[in-house]
């Protein structure tokens, strides 16, 4: 899944995109906002239903759900949001994957 490096949005818009999940291996997406904290609001949650297999409806072994990032645009400005895929207990190790998103907000 190809993620943009930059988006231009308008105040009041909501921008939603998926981040490839790897939760079965203990990895979770985290983010940090560089710039004014009141330009956008960011939330992360699991995306979509869990896949089921077989008649019993058991979760497919080893499956990782994608995560959904939602940006709510609050006011004009510019921020950089750094996303990092890491295990929460391995803060001393570099992230397995990173993505930087430049967000430009117009009136």
Which oligomerization state do the chains in this entry correspond to? single chain
How many domains comprise the coordinates? 1
Mean pLDDT: 88
CATH class: Mainly Beta
Low-confidence stretches: none
Can you count the beta strands?
9
Helix/strand-derived category reads mainly beta
Our estimate of the beta-strand percent is: over 45%
Biggest beta sheet attributes: 4 strands, mixed
Name of the CATH architecture: Sandwich
Gyration radius, in Å: 16 Å
CATH topology: Immunoglobulin-like
**How widely separated are the two ends?**
30 Å
* Fraction of residues in H or I helices: under 10%
How many DSSP helices? 0
Shape: globular
General description of the model:
- With 107 residues, the protein is mainly β.
- The protein has one domain (6-106): Immunoglobulin-like (Sandwich).
- It is built from no helices and nine strands.
- The strands form three sheets. The protein has a four-stranded mixed beta sheet, with no helix packed on it. A three-stranded antiparallel beta sheet has the order 2-7-4, with no helix packed on it.
- The radius of gyration is 16 Å and the shape is globular.
- The two termini are 30 Å apart.
- The mean pLDDT is 88.
